[in-house]
Amino acid sequence: MTHDEQGVPRSSSPIPQSAIRNPQFSLPPAGSRIHIVGIGGIGTSALARVLRHWGYAVSGSDAAASDVTAALAAEGIAVVIGHRAESAAGADLLVYSAAVRGDNPELVAAQAAGVPAVKRAALLGLIANARSPLAVAGTHGKSTTSAMLATICDDAGRDPTFFVGAILQDYGTNARPGGGDLVVVEADEYDRSFLQLWPQVAVVTNVEHDHPDIYPTYGAMEDAYVEFLAQVRPGGAILLSSDDPGCDRLALRIAGGGVAPPRGAAIIRYGRAAGAAWRIEGEGAGAVTVLHDGAAVAELTLRVPGEHNRRNALAALAAASQVGIDPAAAAASLAAFGGIGRRFELKGEVGQVTVVDDYAHHPTEVATTLRAARERFPGRLIWAVFQPHTFSRTKLLTREFAEALAGADRVVLLDIY
């Protein structure tokens, strides 16, 4: 093993081929060119960063310039704005995001030239499944929880590889290659991407109907989650929130609803509900007590506000315990955790106005963020400046969005993005 100029481990064979489950393709040798279409996405940019550190010549394209494409270019990755067939010329592997259409000129050119072309999720699965994946899924909270879990594993000396759907403030990146056996990965349900993963540990934070363009009904989405959890490796663990009706339904289906649980995989509940294996006790913004099977194992204090983050932290701590990390050590990591980009991110103050940026794009997330603002800034006037995201979600959840935004004192509504 060698190291690059930033001290990151670099291996000519980062993925042991014998460890891959049912591979449909393989990575070319280090030094080969990998071209990524839609490289400005949070998931594709994460892959680009890790592949570059592994010694690949990474290039990419995106429809529009952004902070992400600018950051990738500054890191030495060749980025072209706009999609042209010639951009993919000479690539040994083409990777494309779920947003890329089948008539994209780069994808069409690669296929015509016989260049292997795979979705981002397939490549992420190839990388993660070769090691011990710790996968965090859920409608809300998966980015924060996976970031917390990656931080805990890193502080414990496990040197994990991680792929997170947001920038970790403490690392300044959304992905990092590691030399250890663990891969912490945000498991995205969109486009059924998480079905490419075979986790050692799977966390589900909550389940609500989302992405109606992919899942017309709640039942269709729940079926995908059941399929995802059925892929947990023998001897692994499934961690489900005890405070979420969607997770209750999953637990019933897996353990007692006619769907056989993964062979030898433990089903573990966490949250505030009585009977959960991992629980937190205590209210308000101060320290809460973490209990495991009724015994206190740690005191937990967070820099990031909100009850939702206390539950996210409990999920990360419980998942870390499944790979041998002491709960008290995990709690110490969480106490220093600086959060992730666009999740209650403090942008600054002007006069007596505090500006917070949050990617809340589902009614539950909007309501949760507004409650966190009340907790963090008691007595302050709360303005919500909200831009709905996607027409399909906005149409499906119009009433729920209105109810969630009622938690603000004033609302400014922007056009749908």
What this model shows, in words?
- This protein has 3 domains: about 1-10 and about 25-120, NAD(P)-binding Rossmann-like Domain (Rossmann fold); about 130-335, Mur-like, catalytic domain (UDP-N-acetylmuramoyl-L-alanine:D-glutamate ligase, 3-Layer(aba) Sandwich); about 345-415, Alpha-Beta Complex (Protein-Tyrosine Phosphatase, Chain A).
- The protein has about 425 residues and is an alpha/beta fold.
- Helix content is about 30%, strand content about 25%.
- It starts with a strand and ends with a strand.
- Helix 5 packs across helix 8 (about 305-320) and helix 5 crosses helix 9.
- It has a 10-stranded mixed beta sheet, sandwiched between helices. A 5-stranded parallel beta sheet has the order 5-4-3-6-7, sandwiched between helices.
- The chain has helices at about 40-55, 65-75, 105-110, 120-130, 140-155, 220-230, 245-255, 305-320, 325-335, 365-375, 390-395, 400-405; strands spanning about 1-5, 10, 35, 55-60, 80, 95, 115-120, 130-135, 160-170, 175, 180-185, 200-205, 235-240, 265-270, 280, 290, 295-300, 345-350, 355, 385, 410-415.
